[in-house]
């Protein structure tokens, strides 16, 4: 069971660098989209940029 005390930061603060994200591979990230489209788009954009920088991205034409 996850409680409020288990939450270290929200994604809206991690992306602009206002809070730290995971510090190790053992830590778990849970992302729940609450229906805010702009936050979903910014999150996806950030993930794609990081994946591209690490050389692990794949672009698929839909």
Please, could you describe this protein's structure?
With 62 residues, the protein is mainly alpha-helical. 35% of the residues lie in helices and 0% in strands. The protein is built from two helices and no strands. It has helices at residues 11-14, 37-54. The longest helix is centred in the last third of the chain and has 18 residues, at 37-54. The termini are far apart. The relative contact order is 0.11.
**Total number of β-strand segments?**
0
Mean pLDDT, nearest integer?
85
* Shape estimate: globular
C-alpha-based Rg, rounded: 13 Å
Total helical segments? 2
Major beta sheet summary: none
Strand and helix order: HH
Distance between the termini: 37 Å
Task: Estimate the strand proportion.
Answer: under 5%
Uncertain regions: pLDDT < 50 for 5+ in a row?
A: none
What percent of residues adopt helix (DSSP H or I)?
A: 25-40%
Q: Class by helix and strand content? A: mainly alpha
Q: What secondary-structure arrangement, pairings included, does this model have?
A:
Elements: H1 11-14, H2 37-54
Summed up, what is this model?
The protein is mainly α.
Question: What distinguishing features does this structure have?
Answer:
mainly alpha, single chain, 62 residues, 0% strand
